[in-house]
Amino acid sequence: STYTAGLISILSGIVTILTDTWQSPHIPLGINMLVESFRIHFSEIGVAIVSITTFLFAFGTIIGNSYNGSECFNYLSKNRYTKGYFLFMAAMVLFGAIAEVSTFWALIDIVLALVAVPHVVSLLFLAYRKPELLKI
Q1: What CA–CA distance (Å, rounded) separates 75 from 136?
Q2: CA separation, residue 124 to residues 43, 49, 77, 115, 116 (Å)
Q3: What is the mean pLDDT of residues 98-102?
């Protein structure tokens, strides 16, 4: 998934460079620039191409991450509360669809910061208890 996102980003950048849309001060950066690049070469069909592929990529990412998260959650909870996990995921997808982008990104930043704490504590514990595992 990470490699796919990187490949899509590289290809999108190449398209915007080849079509010179990156030089236009009137087109905002991001998906709008890519849409304009495709509109230049494929007219309105280009807009449909970008819209459909973006939807499929986003939908696939949601499904894939939900599945991977559910497998991890099932391992940690010994296959209990799976329905609750999927209800929570559905609520987060709904919230992400209707919330302001800045609000949702702020929430994601908070969650990622909270996830980093147990990782750092675990690394410190590992460094103290098993320092030979951390040698390169």
Answers
A1: 29
A2: 56, 48, 25, 15, 12
A3: 88
